[in-house]
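hey so i finaly got around to running the thing on DnaJ domain-containing protein from Agromyces intestinalis. pasting the sequence first so u can double check i didnt mess up the copy paste, my clipboard has been acting weird all day
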Amino acid sequence: MADSPLSASPYEIIGVSADADDAALRAAYRRALRQAHPDTGGDPAAFHAVQRAWAMIGTPEARAAYDRGRGYGTADASREAWAPAAPRARRDSRPLARSYGHPGGFSRERYLELIREWVGRGVTVDDPYDPALVRGAPRDIRHLLADALVEEQTARSLATLGIAYTVWHDLATDAAGPSLPPKLDHLVLGPSGLFAIQSEDWGGEVSLRRTEVVGEVLGRERPVHALAARAKAISRAARVKPTALMVVVPDEHLAEPLQVGGTVRGAVVALVRSSRLASAVREGLPGSAHLGGTEVMEVRSRLQAVVRFA
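ok and heres what it spat out for the 3d tokens, dont ask me to read them lol
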């Protein structure tokens, strides 16, 4: 199970409610194990997940520890991974890309607001990143924290592009629509083009079909359509055009490192694993226009004049 706020709990993997008695838990475990067993046509990954879930809640002691938020030695690690990271001294002396804005800041602020609202007025939330609290929250609240984490990971990857690139994070835009965050996650400018990027963790596998991201976990969402609208709002104000629209997801949610589709308003659409992002931007996408040095400087000046942050 991935260390994500959207990861299924061991109860969900086994297929039983968290308040099930020991007999019901054991019966559900055996049923899930049979269904997932590779010898009966099941999925090896699902089989391993069921076994690991049982290790977390299969004994009264392990279950009690998990229910307290300290199960299987993972809760402390989850809390550390989910909370804002403390600044660290750099060991690498290579120049980083020029970066502006606060990656993941909007999503974290919205998460903190909604988690406290969900807990209830007058109730003190000592630790909003406590794994037991996070796991019990509604999916839309956990999704905000998951998005903040992948946005921060994307920012770390983009910083390695080097001084030839400029990166803006959490750009304000009014083109998101009433149900979507009013911002563009990342905008990257360099010799390989102008990339509008959305970082996402939907908690499951997705793929690219022509010019849209699809998957069971998406519901009625149209991520590329929304990304194109956000990018257009900014690029129109700056009188520039993005050369690529990219959606970044955790590695385990995409079967291939990079999927390239068609174009939207002249911008090439791509779905990419987080670990492949920096190299994909540095190399440029197939069919995507590269920019000359003078052109990069002009586009940067135009963007700097109009960019606002969420």
